[in-house]
Every structure is written in structure tokens, then in C-alpha cells.
Amino acid sequence: MATLPEPIRLEIFAELARHFDAMRWEEVSSPAATEMYDRFVKDPKIGGRLARFLPTEKIRPWIKDGPAKQYRRALEGVGPMAQMTRREYPGPQSVVRLAMGSGWTLRAQTLDVKPMRCLADGPDSESAFITWGPMSSLQGMVWHACLRRAESESQLITIAVTKPNTAPLPDDDWRLSLSLATILRARCEQITYAVSRKATADARTV
């Protein structure tokens, strides 16, 4: 089949971004997401356009493994969908401040994704590795914390489990997070990290 042209790919990304914004996609449950993937496949503006370039059985995986995952990073201001969404997280510097304290700052050029992570510098020349995300990302966060610990026995490591409101994490989730962090000699924090509408009108569609 023909290769998916870049302009059409971006148009489909923008169409999905509008849907994701409306649904608050980062809060959608797995069963609800499964139902929405089926709807997207049947949507003439999404699946209908992709059908010209992809076999039917590959349309759903394309949506799930591509734009659906990239949208969560777009809310952090990362990736091709970042300028298509009208919503955003407070951002990495906010995570650093919430997880480490007001004297800490994000180190330039250290931001990475899958999961979100960075290095931060403290007021007394300390440095820390910070990884953050919702409870569903805990496995990835712990893995990268393991890799960091393997590189340095003394590195300060913080795993920040994010939540959309001030309600605490369920007890079982929090105990698991703390136990894994303890094994790694890492700090573990739960922080409120909610998406809000962008303050400026610079979000665009393609």
C-alpha cells in the first residue's frame, strides 16, 4: 500500500488531539480506551483516511502505539502533538519543585521521555535524578531508577508518582511504590500534577 504522506499523518494527529483533549485522555480507563480505539478506526476522518495507506488490521495499532501514546508526552510539551493540544501539564520544572523543593532546578538538556525523567540541581550543589508519571508508569520509572543506581551508588534518586488531584494514592499503590523505592535507596513522592487548559491561544490545528 502507499506510504502515509506526512501532511495527512499530521492532520490525523491533529484530529485525534481534538478528541483526546475533549475526553481528557490521560484519565481514560483501559476499557474505555479500547472502546474509543474501535470508534477511531470507524471514524471517516481517522480510520477512513488511514485505510488508504494501511491494512485494516494495522489501523488500530497505529493509533494506539502512535498518537495515543504521544498525546501523553504532548501534555508535557514534548513531541509533534505538543502544538496540537490545547491542554498541558505544569511542566518538568514544576515536577522538580514539587518533588525536591523550591531551590531545585531542571538541568538543561537532560529531559527525556518514556518515562519522563531528568536531572536536577539543588541549592547546595547537589544533583538528583528524577523520574515521574502516573501509577501506570511505575514499572518504567523503577527500571530507569535501577539503571541510574547501577551507574552511581551515591546518586540521589527520586521517583515521583503523579496524580490528577489532591486525593492520596490508594494505600496498596503507595506501599508498592515505597517498597520498590526503598530497594533502590531512592526517595518516593506522590505529587498532584493536573492538566489544565493552555493559558495562551497558541495551540494550533493542522
Structural description of this entry:
- The chain is an alpha/beta fold and 206 residues long.
- It is 43% helix and 16% strand.
- The strands form two sheets. The chain has a five-stranded mixed sheet, with helices on both faces.
- Helix 8 (171-183) links the parallel strand 5 and strand 6.
Brief descriptors of the model:
alpha/beta
How would you state the average pLDDT, rounded? 94
Give the DSSP E fraction (strand runs of 2 or more residues): 15-25%
Instruction: Give the fraction of residues assigned to helices.
Output: 40-55%
Number of H/I helices: 8
Please describe the biggest sheet, giving its number of strands, its sense, and whether it closes into a barrel. 5 strands, mixed
How far apart the termini lie comes to 24 Å
Poorly predicted runs: none
Compute the CA-based radius of gyration. Answer: 19 Å
Helix-strand sequence: HHHHHEHEEEHEHEE
- Number of beta-strand segments: 7
Strand order of the largest sheet: 2-3-4-5-6
Tell me the overall shape. elongated
Which structural class is indicated by helix and strand composition? alpha/beta
